[in-house]
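Quick question about two entries, pasted in order.
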Amino acid sequence: MFNVINQTNKRGEKKKGVTDKDVDLVPSLLDRMHEKNEVIMVNQLGSSTGKENSLEDQPSYLVQEATSDDKKKLTEYTTTMEDQLTSQNRSAFLPTEQKEQSKVVTDNATSGDDQSTSSDELTSPDERSLSSTLAVTYKHLSFPLKCCLLYLGLFPRLYEIPIRRLLQLWLAEGQVTQPTGETKPPKPLEELAKDCFEELLGTRMIEKSEVRLDGSTKTCCVTNALYDTLLLNAEKVGFFHIHRSSGTSQSPRLAEHLDMYIHTKSSEISIKHLRSYIPFYKKKGDAPTSGVSELLKTIVKGGFESLVVLDLEGVYKPVLSEMVGKLRQLKYLGLRRTLLDSVPESVGGLPDLETLDIKQTYVVTLPSTIWEAKKLRHLHMSEIYFDVKKSTRGSLKSHQTLWGLIIRRKLRETDWLVNLTGLRKLKLTCLEPSMEDIADWLTELSNLQALKLRSISDSNEPARLAIKAMRNLTNLSRLYLLGELPNTFKVSDLPENLEVLTLSVSHQSEDPMEALGKLGKLEVLKLYAHSFKGQNMTCHRDGFPQLQVLKLWMLKELQSWTVKDKAMPILKEIEIRCCKNLEKVDGLKNLTSLKELTLTNMKSSFIEYAREKVGDKVIENDWKFPPPWDTRARAES
């Protein structure tokens, strides 16, 4: 597969290491692959900032379907990374003009300011010395992992890539496939993608940017010492080609009215084989981004509807038309953080759609036909209602993620929702009358790994949760329950493999800590507002053997907390917030692994007491405004 990036270069200089011969190789490789319909191209668009340019890549099918000669040529090119990584150590001593030529320029197509930065300007001596080790590591990567790594080079320098986004893009572009010749039952592709990421993370060629409380990676970025070489090699092996537009294409008017400038007239090939499109730029002003609509018009008008990935995450209000429905090969449609308030009806008719992400938007309804998408696997939403009684012809058992659905009525056996038996991630908000049926259905989701369940009343207040025993949900590791737990519910009914547990508005009158302490794999426990109504709480000996993070928020009745010897032996972080009646914590010194005790809006007497016990481990936060849940204080202020 081959990717084209349309990129502005103000200087018009050739990049060091890329010759005319290398560039000429691309069309010949393209012609051979186009005969097999294996061509993927990417159009990189200019942006309003140098650090967030439009970048995209699709190397997967090159690995899977390219000819043996092309694969051999790709392998030969990728081995040059060892020499180029090592040469970074010498880059600091190059003459200025050579340094300029060695930059991978990412110009601003709307401003004319050169925002690019060479590797020696952003890397420290330690990072440059690390490149020799990285070169050896890269040489020993498997072929598919090299392709996955090169893919990351298409994101802007130091861009924090959400793991959720990265893995689903890999899947949409076919970079992760089932291994051949395996005798064991096949892993889901999502699990294989995670394995690839973890293996790359272990090479130190990519690094964690943001980590969740349980230690899992939320975002990552390419190691700075590797970035320039990675980008250069990705272009050189044919994963993408940098197309340089002329200076006259930088229209001041477009810069004034659009954050994104799409240069589609310079070369028809930039659009004809476009398969993936991901823009990166910062929002400027309040004007919707119409450039996306213009791009789609060009694609559809030319009969080039081969787009597989359309990822507009973070683009401000892109103007999407019903022409999206003509992109019959589209697998990934990312609209997260776009602030859109509607989705084109034609989206429901996309036959190959696998991922639709409309989280953090103002979309409140979806086309009813979306549930008929036979290949839909991941649906990310922000509290969207859908009538579950409507019939669907889709392959519901392929659904992996259903996040952000509102259920307003009781379920029937004929409702399509009960057929979603393969779910792994689920977030539901249910009106109280529907809870009994939902509770029965949940016990059948044996593949479930993450569940967030909220019960609300007609007035949108927290309501009763009709939860039944979950011990059979052995794959469930992350659980968030918001609502009053019934008296019949026992903490011991929770899945034994839980790693992260959050309880909110549970109204538990009995101390839950002894039972919770028996969850041997629990790493993060968050007890939020009104989850416990008692005055005394005790963590017993040998309880919580793996707990590392504990949060106690707004437990208004709590007065004393006792920590027995050898309880929570590896606990590192505690946050106590707005527990106004808490006077003491007996046994605080027993927490020998504690690194931070964060106290937010706590009484000064308790803060002094805590400092006497654990000294400088105490971090004090004092909010000067009433919390959003304290409506009385807000009214008085």
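Here is the second entry:
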Amino acid sequence: QVEESAMMGVSGYVEYLREQEVSERWFRYNPRLTCIYCAKSFNQKGSLDRHMRLHMGITPFVCRMCGKKYTRKDQLEYHIRKHTGNKPFHCHVCGKSFPFQAILNQHFRKNHPGCIPLEGPHS
């Protein structure tokens, strides 16, 4: 897993702190977990916080290799695999490796019909 310091520059961290302050302020006036911009509802405050970043343009997670910005840490981790060539998803039938679960699933449908891939990264 990529260290947070490698993913988020100083400006990204400052944006993140600003976003936390803003979200705390508007949450006091919006206890039903409903987006004040599009009325989408959420079961958890964290989910609403992540959603609000889209409307607010807050992108605290920055790729240090190319500068691309993301609203969520998992999006950045997914993106970084394109730079690093990390392929943590392995086919237990033929041994090939893939950077993403979706590509492993596609490989199984095409090359090993009837077999089911193991979920998650494997060593």
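Reply: Residues 10-28 form the longest helix (19 residues). The CA atoms of residues 32 and 73 lie 25 Å apart. Hope that helps.
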